[in-house]
Structure formats: structure tokens, C-alpha cells
Amino acid sequence: MFGLKFVKFEPGLYIFRYKKGKIIAQGECLSFWYYAPSNSFVAIPIGSSDSPFMFRETTADFQEITIQGQMTYRITEPEKTAKMLNYSINSSNLRYISDDPQKLSERLISTVLVATKTAVKTLTLKEAVTSSDTIAQKIYKAVAADNMVKVLGIEILSVAITAIRPNPETAKALEAETREQILRESDEAIFIRRNFAVEQERKIKESELNTEIAVETKNREIQEKKMESEKLVMHKRIEMEETHMQFQISQEEKNKSLVTLKVQNEKMQSDAKAYAVSALMKAYTQLDPEVLKAFANSQMDAGRLIATAFQGISEKAGKIGNLNITPDLLSEIVNLKNKNAK
Fold it and tell me: What is the dihedral of CA 285, 290, 296, 300, to 10 degrees?
């Protein structure tokens, strides 16, 4: 009624209220009554905004690629933005009266385009396709440091590269090359795996052979020690036999010496006896036989003496006329004979 209106702005809009060319109020979430013919407003969106982009660029090896991504930004200094761009809204219908709000995103995308060209021109096709994070980081730094962005009071929140694609023909060639590379790597992996299996088998056989060699070596050592023990025992036995033989030889030599000495002693005794007998016989030869008989008869018993007497009588039987033998004498002779027999 009569041009008096009430307005309430939502969060995310920074409002400048002008009256007679001067700012009478500013801030977020403002609500007030105003008179339309004498009031004007500038509404700066201070929330984050996304600006998608897609460029065709040429790499260092003259290959065309398509880069697709998105930049996120927000206005942090509305005063600068309001001075550089027209964000005025119609006080009657609260709509922007110019297309500058749409031009802000275009200006930023132009800055992104320049930064993308700079980031890609030194990369080959393969490097560009696999370097999305690096390219995005370079673009972010270049745009954030751009003077125009600072003058507009804008903060670049992030730059993301969602896709980097070569043209279809180049993509097929890369796919073929990559496929061949993958197949070569697969063949190499199979070759390496087979070599590894062969190497492991060789190591196993070598380990088994080493084990057998160690066993044979141990057995040989055991046999050698056994042979050495047997040899030592044999040597000991031979030494013992030699010692025993030497002992026997020594004993035989001693026995021989003893026998020789015994023979010599016996010979000496025999010689002594023979000498004594010879001397005795020599002495006997010098005696009268009758004296010898007397000596012999002196050692005889009565029976022998009687027998000797009868023998003498028988020798001189031709000279004896008569011989009387009494029964007493015969009885005495028989008794002496029986006594001698016992």
C-alpha cells in the first residue's frame, strides 16, 4: 500500500540496503520495511557455488584430449564483488536487473581454462591421462593466485578433474597398446612364476642332494672312525701278541738257559759221580777180593750171609766130604726168608 513493503532475505545472501546512494544496512538474513521508490538493494550470494567445465586441449605430443571437471568457490568479500559486478536487484520484484551474476562463473571458468592449458602443455598424452590429480592441483594453485579472483573477493575452495579422455581413435590405440603391455606383463609374470618354480625345485633338489652328501659324509666319517677303532684295536692286539711273543721268546730263552744250565749242572754232577765212582773203583781194584767180600758181607743180614755161605760151600763142594745141616738151621733159614718177604 502506497509503495511500502516488507522483505525478508534468506541466509546465504549478503544484502546491501541503499537509500539516497548511501548504505543504511548490510548483512545476512535482513528483514525490514522499505519504501520501494527510495530504496535499492544489492544481494551477493556468499554460499559455495559449483562451476562445471569441459575443455579440449592439446598435449605436448600433439594429441587432443578432453578435460572435464568442476570448480567450487564462494564470495568471501562481498564489498569487492559489489564494486566489480552489478548484483543489484529490483526493489519491486527482488530480481537481478543485470546478467553480471551469471558472468562471474564465466570469468572464473576462463581463468580455469588458461590454467588448464598451462598445466597440460608440458605433458604427453599418457602422462596427461594418468595425472588428473596433479593437473587439478596446478589449476587450483593458478586460479587461487589469480589477481582477478582476488579483486572480486572470491575464495577458490577446490578444483576437481573428473575425467581426462583422448579422442576415440587415440583411445583405441592406447587400449591396444595397453592390452599388449598387459599381455606382455602377463607373459613375463608367467615366465617369472615358472622360473621361480624351477628355481624352487632346483633349490629343493640341491637341498636333498646336500642332505644326501651330508649323510654320506657322516656315514663315511663313522666308517672311518670305526676303521680307525678297529685298526687301533688290531694294533693293540698285534702289540699284545708281539709283547706276548717276546715274553714267550724271553721265557723260552730263559728256559733254554735254565735247561742248558740244568744240563750243564747234571753233566757236572754226572761227571762228579763218574769221577767219584771211578775213584772208588780205582780204590777197589787195589784191594784184595777177599777184603771186598768181607766189606760186602759186613753189611748183609743173617739170611744173606747164610745164603752166601751156602754159595761158597757149593763152589768148593768137591773138596767137602760130608756136610751136616740141622733142622734148626733150616727152620731158621725159612723164617728169615719169610721175614724178608714181608
Answer: 170
At 173-190, the pLDDT tens digits run 777 777 788 888 888 888
What gap in Å lies between CA 120 and CA 70, rounded to an integer? Answer: 17
98-155: per-residue pLDDT in tens? 888 888 889 999 999 999 999 998 898 888 888 899 999 999 999 999 999 999 999 9
Q: How far is CA 50 from CA 61, 69, 99, 112, 266, in A?
A: 32, 10, 18, 13, 149
**What does the CA dihedral 97, 99, 102, 106 come to, rounded to 10 degrees?**
-150
Among positive and negative, which fits the CA dihedral 127, 131, 132, 137? negative
- The set of cell numbers assigned to 132 is 588428473
pTM of the model: 0.51
Residue 131 CA, distance from chain mean position: 44
Q: Tell me what pLDDT residue 330 has.
A: 61
Measured between alpha carbons, how far is residue 6 from residues 14, 30, 161, 173, 312 in Å?
17, 11, 45, 65, 210
User: What's the order of all strands across the beta sheet hosting 22-28?
Assistant: 22-28, 13-19, 39-45, 88-89
Residue holding cell 717276546?
246
**Measured between alpha carbons, how far is 210 from 200 in angstroms, rounded to an integer?**
15
